[in-house]
Amino acid sequence: MDRPIRVLVGKVGLDGHDRGVKVVASALRDAGMEVIYTGLHQTPENVVRAAVEEDVEVVAISILSGAHMTLFPRLLELLRENGRDDILLCGGGIIPEKDRLALEKIGVGALFGPGTDTTEIVSYLEEEVKKRRAR
Amino acid sequence: MQPNGHQLIDGLLRGDRASLARAISFVENAAPSSMKILDAVYPRTGKAYRIGVTGPPGAGKSTLVSRLVGELWSEGKSIGVVAVDPSSPFTRGALLGDRVRFQEIPDDPRFFVRSMASRGSSGGLAFRTGEVCDLLDASGKDVLVIETVGVGQSELDGAAAVHTTVVVLVPESGDEVQAMKAGLMEIGDVFTVNKADRVGADRMARCVEEMLHLGAGGDGWKAPVVLLSALSGDSFPLFLDALRRHEDHIRKSGDFARLKIERGRAKIEEIVERERNREFWKRSEVECSFEEALAQLAGGKTTPYREAARMLDQFRREGK
Amino acid sequence: MRDDRGRFRTLSGIPVKHVYSWEDREGVDEMETVSEPGRFPYTRSIHETLYRKRLWTMRQFAGFGTPADTNERFRYLLDNGQTGLSTAFDMPTLMGHDSDDPLSLGEVGREGVAIDTIDDMETLFRDIPLDKVSTSMTINGPAIMVLAMYVVAAERQGVPPSKLRGTLQNDILKEYIAQKEWIYPPVPSMRIITDMLTYCTKEMPLWNTISISGYHIREAGSTAVQELAFTLADGFAYVEAGIAAGLDVDDFAPRLSFFWNAHNDFFEEIAKYRAARRIWAKRMKNRYGAKKERSWMVRFHTQTAGCSLTAQQVENNIARVAYQALAAVLGGTQSLHTNSMDEALALPTEKAVRIALRTQQILAHETGVINTVDPLGGSWFVEELTDRMEEEAERYFAEIDERGGVIAGIEQGYFQREIADAAFRYQREVETEERIVVGVNRFVDHDEKEETTPLLEIAPEVEKDQVERLERFRASRNAALVKKALADVCAAAASDTNLMPVVLQAVRHGATLGEMVGVIREQFGVYREPAVF
Lengths: 135, 320, 533
Description:
The complex is a heterotrimer.
Chain A: E1 6-11, H1 19-30, E2 34-37, H2 44-54, E3 58-63, H3 68-81, E4 88-93, H4 97-105, E5 111-112, H5 118-134
Parallel strand pairs in A: 1-2, 1-3, 3-4, 4-5
Helix pairs in contact in A: 1-5, 2-3
Chain B: H1 5-14, H2 17-28, H3 34-41, E1 49-55, H4 61-74, E2 79-85, E3 94-96, E4 111-117, H5 122-138, E5 143-149, E6 164-169, H6 174-180, H7 184-187, E7 190-193, H8 201-214, E8 225-227, H9 236-253, H10 255-282, H11 284-298, H12 304-319
Parallel strand pairs in B: 1-5, 1-6, 2-4, 2-5, 6-7, 7-8
Helix pairs in contact in B: 1-2, 1-3, 2-5, 11-12
Chain C: H1 30-33, E1 57-58, E2 61-62, H2 67-79, E3 85-88, H3 91-94, H4 118-124, E4 134-138, H5 143-157, E5 165-168, H6 173-179, H7 186-203, E6 207-208, E7 210-213, H8 215-219, H9 224-244, H10 249-252, E8 256-262, H11 266-286, H12 293-296, E9 300-304, H13 316-330, E10 335-337, H14 350-365, H15 380-402, H16 406-411, H17 414-431, H18 461-475, H19 479-494, H20 499-508, H21 513-524
Parallel strand pairs in C: 1-10, 2-3, 3-4, 4-5, 5-6, 7-8, 8-9, 9-10
Helix pairs in contact in C: 2-4, 4-5, 5-20, 9-11, 9-15, 11-13, 11-15, 13-14, 19-20, 19-21
């Protein structure tokens, strides 16, 4: 039996819009994943520490405050510092195309915009984790 | 990051967070290397004081645990928390939200939280929780707090045994308490009625006390019932005091040290049973014989009891 | 929308019949429940003449970058015929952090304007006479500091507090329920609010002290019924807190206002506004013993539903916004914000903001809907739906009472769970195509190129500039006076002295937003919500 995918789902930064992140967390649970929810207003340091302790395979972050160009690179840097750049960092929020491409270039995974079907997110994570486990 | 076994064990014993976390995953997934890791760290276990916190959903366990952890942390102790939440029996998925409660504690190597999903049977969970605690214990944590949902279930039995079990109830827990009756005494060492500002708190506390009285045990410990508010912190010192008295009590009585032996015994039993089962089912002729038995059953020509006896017989003969 | 059993339902799930007739209204005393415009219980309107006498206030929410940037946008909007201002603050300001706080990194001036000091507040309203415009400020956690800064900024323009007109959102309860931008725990937060109620009742008679907001509850995923019920329940909690603080209900209730969402289900939204007026009026009169008519009236601002906008085929949003705006106007709103089509992508550009404002102007001046008050009044369907909304809301009030009130419900995670469930249900319905969203799960344009629309970008220098200005400001203050003023704030928080006068004094001496929030936090602590899904 395959072990369940462990995902950390959280909100970094100051905005409190947690509707999307909760819908996604519930959908991932219903897809058979173990979802660790960190709550609102997390610092990148908090998130990475939790990701290390929980030994997750995926960190999925929601940012709606417009601070994505600061926070995603910081998360990547901290994962690297902790020797855990094998963890997939992905996320969602209102992120313009230009920024999304720039973030993908530096190693951030898929960034989902408003109106994304949760099944799309689930199959993306399943696929990515399968690839990574095969490595 | 794929460190080899030795690096992982060394890291864990040094208290390195990432190694500890990874080792816990191996144990949680019952990976082949987990036995080797547990074997290597065993001599370093037995020092940590293990507290189990259990109670019905919504009783405020997480709030109480976070307050307790904050207190222990400010005393300079190092702490490991294992928070167990149920997995869905249908999808196997789980939502683990207990970390939300631990944000006041600064980023400090003295503090480690791990969320665990129950993943199936409670018996298996008890073993895995116990093993995860062994790893935390070996990594040098002074106190371990294991938080589980439910009252009177077997999460904290056997190999997962703890030194002190705290049962968290609320004024609305009447049904749970009724269902336990005199068995309550066996479950908890310290009882709390949380949300004590709500209607019915006093009555709840009296009710628990009466039942404890009925089932008073013979080990010289009378489980106290503490009315408190975990959220506001009212009467929290009374709870701390009750915990300390129980710790003293079991250290003096020798129960503290006995726990490690007790867990060892359970562990041997578990491993032997598991390996014996595995050995049985691994045999190729068993597989054939099983298929055959199923076919016979489907044909209505035999009974499960007869077939089981036949298979065991065959196993014993051929094992010689 | 048709559900899986073939029934038609509103967005909130209320079943809708294929036709309504006089039979549906048999036995209902409409003289009493519906009454006339301007008459208790105000189902039809709080004013007898409504838009004939005065159009609704067209109030577009704006704020980004530095105070000078937003000041420029404000003046642009006033020049284009907007009649009131509405300030959006950035995330650090909303959470009570100064721009140089490590937690503010990357967020300064992004979702709104950064306000750290009295200097910033003066810049924000430079060349805008504060005795002439009415200003709405969307601020909750640090509302007391921001109000104090506004009062001092006006003081420096020579305008006394008694002449200030505007609205402070100041609705902390819905923060715990939905918007999640809180600072202190609920109980001390309520004390700050009663301090402000007490001050404003005496000193600022034209000021709306709390804008009790359903908007964010809806945006968080609630149904229309939940928006209605939870918001009114919050309102009752403020009224009870004011009475408990020793105020006469008729002294402060007339300055309470409401803020609703305008979502897609046209008639349900209209019924929601009508039901809100009726429920509030009845409770204020019958339960809280209010005697003034103004205490019974729900005056409200409406904003079209941000969460209904789609990132796909953004121009479609113009049509959505127009229908939603129409619902708000037919529901009798006092002021309106229409969203810009590009808000699902980024902050709105000037062009998108202009189209949104023009949508309101077309509604007001071309469609003729303003000619008569409550044109849908007496519609069998709308009256029936209004009654149903009221019934459903009453059911929620009973549940909330059972749980020990709004704060108990928050601590139990009750509201949060109800909303999360509704949001999840909605998402499921969209994904199973039980609910159709044009351009998202139906009529999808596969060749659509993203972002042909130009987007407003916030330059990274904004944060640097703001931090530098803050540093200069800090260096220019009399440190001893600031220290003393902050100690006074801290002492007032520890005792039951009203906080407003000491906060005003601290602002005059140059204490920053973050500093004032910080000393009160020492006394009140912070809030952590239970994880609820």
